[in-house]
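Holo model, iron/sulfur cluster. Inputs:
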Amino acid sequence: MKIRLDPERCTGHGRCYVLAPEVFDEDDAGRCVLKHAAVPSELHEQARKGVESCPEHALVIEETGAVTS
Ligand code: SF4
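Output:
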């Protein structure tokens, strides 16, 4: 799974990294930072929760497949 973050939309209120702390992190300004270039399969459910929680639609799942490497 790959997630795309649109930094123009991210307003930094942190729902994503509160709900999915193993997938998302925050920078010094409280804006979202992706922790994985490709999200490992055991974190897919958590990642979906984080993506769906973003009220700004700043996060998009680009590729849903499991990562094998
Ligand atoms: S929930 Fe959305 S707007 Fe809020 S920090 Fe995460 S990506 Fe940014």
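The helical segments are 15-19, 44-53. The chain has a mean pLDDT of 94.
Archived with the compound record.
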